[in-house]
Amino acid sequence: MLPNYQFFPVSHPEEGAGGKTGNWRVVRPEVTSKCIGCNACFLWCPEGTIMVKGNKAEVNYVYCKGCGVCANVCPVKAITMVSEA
After folding, report:
1. In CATH, what number does 27-83 get?
2. InterPro entries, from UniProt (predicted)?
3. Per-residue burial over 34-60, b = 16 or more CB atoms within 10 Å of its CB, e = otherwise
């Protein structure tokens, strides 16, 4: 949960007109044990598909499109993009 003083646009994925958009994905983010729970991926995910629970990020693969923004902003490189094939 974010402190009250931070006002970032945060979306929560829900099934909308596009349906379960995770089907479009070619690569998926995988969170490794290096995750420190810093919330950078949560804050930058354009689809709101990442939640940080405890000290580890969790990806909602039903809606994640595999854009890779989370892997690019991770300061400890705990997220790697893995091919779906």
Report:
1. 3.30.70.20
2. 4Fe4S_Fe-S-bd, 4Fe4S_Fe_S_CS, PorD_KorD
3. ebeebbbbbbebebbbbbbeeeebebe
